Automatic annotation (TrEMBL), chains A, B:
Organism: Thermoactinomyces daqus
Membrane-spanning parts: 283-303, 315-336, 357-375, 381-406, 418-440
Cellular localisation: Cell membrane; Membrane
Domain of life, per lineage: Bacteria
Name of the protein: Magnesium transporter MgtE
CDD domains in the record: CBS_pair_Mg_transporter
Domain CBS: 199-255
Keyword field contains Nucleus: no
Pfam families in the record: CBS, MgtE, MgtE_N
GO cellular component: plasma membrane
Summary of subunit composition and partner proteins: Homodimer.
Gene this chain is encoded by: mgtE
Family in the record: Belongs to the SLC41A transporter family.
Topology class, membrane: Multi-pass membrane protein
Length: 447, 447
């Protein structure tokens, strides 16, 4: 990264000055500034913020944690605090207000003009993880009969408050969304062109209660910069910008990874999650898997006489069932992701099974051969080595079949296939793997 | 999604018309159009494309697979094909040319004007997964002494070819990047304002050889819509837009998930990956884990006399080692993601270990209690139930310690912590879990 100014002003030297160097402040990126503000003591932070241009200060504030945002605004001069708050985007204000104590939120809300306060209050009522919770009300709307020139004048007047001006939303008499004009097209067109002539009337919009995953999928599919959110009457109530969607995509990936590891996803960052909450997220699946996995004991008990006769069979139990679990884990991690990105669908079931069985056959033969020689290295008979080898082959095949079919079937049944974690598939094939192993042993060793 | 036009024109009825309905075509989203084009036979596809406005046709083409793009361009009238190709963004052209046969690429390149052809040729030389491979050369640059009005005129002239106009890149005499002006700020400022007065001079840019993961991290950290790419002399050579970064984020998440499942990540979509290639990606880790896991057999063999005396001890082997693996899998999936998003660092090692050991203690006690009663349900002595219960507790604790430390230590050693997959951690704690189990058994049962 080429960040010459930051290099010139080493953070330490900058931080040593209580007075912010004016030239630096105007040039800094809001994000870099926020990193500096976070490291300062409160007195200095307030002094710096007061010295900054308003828009830059508001943008830098948006990168701080909600609690720190609140503390800062609360201790600033009331007038400045209220101007800063107004300048912040509405989705950031909502995030802050939802994170602090309701009484503190009340106090902040009083700083806003009444009509804006109402908008914020409305935004706060949308449930988490929906389009409504992601949207901002700071957009630019215009009327269909306006010319490009008129619209530009309007943007100059109100655009400072808008989060983005890349799209101009054309609304009708009742506030209903009737079209979208991209700023690019408007600028490329003649200044006297009416918005009605260049607006896309086939608008892609989302309802406020749509799940954030779906919003992210739509925005990234179309490659838009922002998506309009409408109510049931198709009235424009907000927009969702791409940066919020990037965050959603990251969150969803984190969730998938945690589920695949066999845990309920954490709702907070790792260090903010208490031990008790980690425990509760994890014990659910550990308990299910422990109780489910206990059937392996019953399976082995039923083969007690076989094990009594050839105790060395038990030596290979961990290796063989582990291999079944590993094979399954590889397959489900591929398929769950492919289902998530809609690369694989239920109608592909037989294609997937065939593909996984053929791959499983190759893998099973390879591991079967290695298994034979591994067993031969120990003090066991050739017959037992044969049993281990065959068991490895059939366990891999069986695990491939189960792991290929299960995620697709669950997806079909509208159950999130991500419940099939690595641990779950391992547990599922552990017991059945033992049955395969013991049956082969009984057949080959004539027990 | 509210897509009234699509609803009016059911795809079937639209597709039944060989002639594209003009009103529909001008209003459709490029993505939706591309979905329709993909379903058509070639004759109809060519007819539709010829009837579409050029920019819309080019945008829709960009959503098609490289092979289909090539086929379409190759069979269109040469003049139209060349205009369409010029209209496509340069990163898309590069993707297409790299996907088809070199001779076909050569043929396409000949359609482009010479200077543009050189640019494309240069773009094609950047290695995959670097900033250079993601960038497009279709941006708007301007000079510092231009006024807002002048710049707008310039954009009207050249902006049609640009992928975005949200940022205007200010370059110096030698093409070096000296500042960035957001279109928003330029429009909000007085038309006579010089770019030099509103440009951010402390530019965040990336070198062409930066890894795409890092590019994605920078873009999402700052919330930019696009990042400029510069050469060693700080000359602007291209820009990377957020939609490419979203794709990178998705790819990286897919890779992490596949690695976590214990497989080398696939480089192609699932159905494009051959069985042989699936085999090669998977056998590596399966082989390592099989050979590594084989030490469990040696461990058990060394306890042969114990197992001979109390064969029922073997009943609980799969359950206990499975639980160790499950605990580990939960922890590493959380930590690997937290390391990836830089939420956790090596300096947090002891904090992480403490947190995981306390959580592990709670989990171990819970599972120990359940384990005792589970064993009691079977035909074994109370002493054995005690052994199972204690083993569950200590195996969970041990697995927590290993799984908490290992990813952080690897990260510190500059080894991708994602090599610690669920299967790897399971295999690691399988053998040690058996030692814990057997040692407790020998101590409690006085064997």
């Amino acid at each position: 990264m080429d960040n010459a100014l930051l290099k010139q002003h080493e953070p330490q030297s900058v931080l040593a000055n209580a007075d912010p160097p004016a030239e630096l402040l105007h040039q800094l990126q809001p994000y870099d500034l926020s990193e500096m503000l976070r490291e300062m003591d409160e007195k200095k932070r307030l002094k710096w913020i007061a010295a900054l241009p308003l828009t830059l200060a508001a943008e830098a504030l948006e990168y701080l944690e909600p609690e720190l945002q609140y503390e800062t605004l609360n201790h600033l001069d009331g007038n400045l605090a209220s101007m800063l708050l107004k300048q912040m985007s509405s989705d950031m204000i909502v995030d802050m207000l939802l994170a602090v104590h309701p009484l503190q939120a009340e106090k902040m809300l009083k700083m806003l003009p009444e009509d804006y306060r109402e908008k914020i209050n409305a935004l706060m009522r949308y449930p988490e993880y929906t389009a409504g919770s992601l949207m901002t009300v700071d957009y630019v709307s215009a009327r269909a009969h306006w010319t490009g020139e008129q619209t530009l004048r309007h943007i100059r007047k109100v655009g400072g408050e808008a989060e983005i001006i890349s799209y101009i939303y054309v609304t009708g008499m009742r506030g209903e969304l009737v079209g979208i004009v991209s700023l690019k097209e408007m600028i490329l067109a003649h200044p006297q062109t009416k918005l009605a002539d260049i607006a896309k009337k086939d608008v892609i919009s989302v309802p406020a209660d749509m799940e954030q995953e779906e919003v992210a999928a739509i925005l990234s599919r179309y490659g838009f910069y922002a998506l309009p959110v409408v109510d049931r009457q198709n009235r424009l109530i907000g927009i969702i910008t791409y940066d919020d969607v990037v965050e959603v995509i990251q969150e969803e990936a984190t969730e998938d990874i945690q589920k695949l590891g066999g845990s309920q996803p954490l709702s907070e960052p790792y260090f903010k999650t208490s031990v008790w909450s980690l425990y509760r997220k994890r014990i659910v699946w550990l308990f299910i898997l422990f109780v489910g996995g206990a059937y392996t004991s019953t399976v082995l008990e039923s083969y007690q006489s076989t094990l009594d006769k050839v105790v060395s069979l038990s030596f290979f139990i961990p290796l063989l069932i582990g291999t079944g679990g590993n094979t399954g884990s590889q397959i489900i991690s591929t398929l769950i992701r492919a289902l998530g990105t809609e690369e694989v669908k239920f109608r592909d079931l037989f294609r997937v099974i065939r593909k996984e069985l053929v791959t499983g056959l190759l893998l099973g033969i390879s591991l079967g051969i290695i298994g034979f020689f591994r067993a031969e290295l120990m003090d066991v008979s050739v017959a037992i080595s044969m049993v281990v080898s065959l068991a490895a082959l059939f366990i891999v095949l069986w695990s491939s079949l189960v792991s290929a079919a299960l995620p697709l079937v669950l997806h079909r049944l509208k159950i999130d296939p991500a419940v099939v974690s690595g641990p779950l598939i391992s547990t599922l094939v552990d017991g059945t793997g033992l049955i395969i192993y013991m049956s082969i042993a009984k057949a080959v060793l004539h027990l």
